[in-house]
Fold each of these.
Amino acid sequence: AQTVTQSQPEMSVQEAETVTLSCTYDTSESDYYLFWYKQPPSRQMILVIRQEAYKQQNATENRFSVNFQKAAKSFSLKISDSQLGDAAMYFCAYRVNNNDMRFGAGTRLTVKP
Amino acid sequence: DTGVSQDPRHKITKRGQNVTFRCDPISEHNRLYWYRQTLGQGPEFLTYFQNEAQLEKSRLLSDRFSAERPKGSFSTLEIQRTEQGDSAMYLCASSQDGIQQPQHFGDGTRLSIL
């Protein structure tokens, strides 16, 4: 079974500081994609960043970067210079082949001014 | 790009009634997905379409659930004889073909069963 685990139900960070959200997954596949999605309160889910399993270089998107450890099946998200608008639920997701995505239970991020 | 739109945003109904939700994907996307999200959880996959063909259904999709995408554009998700446990947010997403393509989500339809 393919599962995604987010071990931190809630995290908080001071504005302008850095926070890391953890994600582990379980798969027997060798090629897959990993995604981080953000879901602000009462708003739609939007893509933050994605990573292909075959690429060793960690993906970065502005203040967002990942630490992808394929052997450990770990895919953490680092948010630098946190802003109030970063407050949201963050979901880690895994996709193999061309099918559906499997999501973790999410981490609720609070940003303190 | 008008995004993925879902209708209605909220639906309140009595147990035992039938409900139907609609999803309009991004126009150039040939893949369309339905997910269910309960409070405090991530989305759970229900089913997906490539064009008009329904290619996969989750075991979560009981025989009371049916989804269609008749012309490969919009999709409907119908729940018959609703139960309390059907209360959830129903999310629709669309994407282009390819494992690397991200799914674009709609705002969802929140279903409440009285």
Amino acid sequence: GENVEQHPSTLSVQEGDSAVIKCTYSDSASNYFPWYKQELGKRPQLIIDIRSNVGEKKDQRIAVTLNKTAKHFSLHITETQPEDSAVYFCAASEEGTYKYIFGTGTRLKVLA
Amino acid sequence: GAVVSQHPSRVICKSGTSVKIECRSLDFQATTMFWYRQFPKQSLMLMATSNEGSKATYEQGVEKDKFLINHASLTLSTLTVTSAHPEDSSFYICSADRGRRTEAFFGQGTRLTVV
């Protein structure tokens, strides 16, 4: 089955700096990769996603890149703000199944 | 966006009792719902896939007799934790799909504490 690894587990950055979180997946059948932000005790919120027919996607300060050959995908947050502090999860899925295998999570702390 | 509502948001129960958690899709029909479990500071682990009108599909290592799933309608799936023990204390989250190549939508989660 699918296995998703995520690094780093914790990340502290100064406000205004960039943050990068990386994930790898194992199942070549996975073709949909969402990223979720979760605040303590709350539901995960989708922040960006990418499908395997695209190498990069950007939405304002957030971007995701995908290297299908290497089975890597990364989340990039630029100009970080304190409100970006949360736990971020990557996930992999075969599109249409909605069955997500999540990475282990990254606790991002943006220092003011 | 689509709304998935989970109830209750918090529950405390005694060891040996059973607890039912509901997951509802409020503005769409969901033929499939998913149940995840999240331990403190850990990831979401998929427990089972709930299929409307048929038996749930459980992930390896998840006891089907312990975690009973019922998906009796296109808008409701329930997870019953039977004979709960303190080690079952966790955050349980459901998700549902609306089809149409959109993302899955998550409920707000249920924090279960077994004392």
Amino acid sequence: DAGVIQSPRHEVTEMGQEVTLRCKPISGHDYLFWYRQTMMRGLELLIYFNNNVPIDDSGMPEDRFSAKMPNASFSTLKIQPSEPRDSAVYFCASSSWDSISYGYTFGSGTRLTVV
Amino acid sequence: AQTVTQSQPEMSVQEAETVTLSCTYDTSESDYYLFWYKQPPSRQMILVIRQEAYKQQNATENRFSVNFQKAAKSFSLKISDSQLGDAAMYFCAYRSAQNAGNMLTFGGGTRLMVKP
């Protein structure tokens, strides 16, 4: 398996624009997590899905953020409109129930810069 | 809610020496998992070592070992024979074995510098 695949690796956008981050989890994993990493706040869980259903989105900072998982092999995190304070590294990670002792497998992250 | 605390924002070690990174956590659960992740400048999150709370024996992976003190809720990482490639951010993480969501809760991280 190629692991968790995120795209793009880097994204630079202007304030007010829509940004879409993409994630392909490991095949067979039934949990998918979106994290945001900043210097000030560290790693924050934004939302997670189980079997494509959003379970907990309490970490989503504002209504400008939305996430979807239309099928088991694809998820998106959208920011509309984007603001400079959204600049961060966004990680996607996946896991399966029968391997919970093994933690997550992370993607390489997307570094988002909003200017 | 569980919390994970890493009290050392930065640590440095001489190449070939040993260094210990500290981690404490707070939980009311008895069954859980603990992890150490490494994040090098490439920003990839890499699992270094894990520990099941029900196991008394400390986990070991080559030069990496942990000191797990369940009663004290302490989970430190020891790196022996430090190498330049060990320089990275290290994150301690907690995961419930019971909670259906099984989210990882991370500490704030410790930046490890290795001096040649």
